[in-house]
Write a structure and sequence with these properties.
It is a peripheral membrane protein. This protein is mainly alpha-helical. It is built from two helices and no strands. The longest helix is centred in the C-terminal third of the chain and has 82 residues.
């Protein structure tokens, strides 16, 4: 008779749940990276525009161009604030998904450990039964002499 783990179906369900949560976590990481990259690009654009404004002031340019640059900088600043909020939300979501994944991973590990212990108990019991049968057979053979 082979080993049958009584909680095998439960363990499989937990593994599927863990895999689903892991996929959600990977998706959250991807979303966070995308939003963070967009934030970086906005910050870089603002920095470049500020550098351009400084150069224009140093070389002398029209007030109209400086006003245009200032308007663009203010618009970029607003976009940056919105993107910072989005980045923070994405980071929080990613952290929650990570914690959920850790919880599911621990659950699966518990079932794997239980299965391992039950399997070892089964092997020990089989070994004990075999030894008892061999002892019984030895006694029978000895009694026949």
């Amino acid at each position: 008779m082979s080993f049958q783990f009584t909680l095998q179906k439960v363990m499989q369900v937990r593994e599927r749940e863990k895999n689903k949560v892991q996929a959600e976590y990977q998706e959250a990481i991807g979303h966070f990276e995308k939003v963070a990259t967009q934030l970086y690009e906005l910050l870089k654009s603002k920095e470049d525009l500020e550098e351009l404004s400084r150069n224009q002031i140093a070389t002398g340019t029209s007030i109209y161009k400086l006003q245009q640059n200032q308007t663009k900088i203010m618009r970029l600043q607003q976009e940056i604030l919105e993107k910072q909020r989005a980045t923070q939300l994405a980071r929080e979501k990613m952290t929650v998904k990570e914690q959920h994944l850790v919880t599911k991973t621990i659950e699966v590990k518990k079932y794997e450990k239980i299965k391992q212990l039950k399997q070892e108990q089964y092997k020990e019991e089989e070994k004990r039964k075999d030894l008892m049968q061999m002892d019984e057979l030895s006694v029978q053979l000895f009694a026949k002499r």
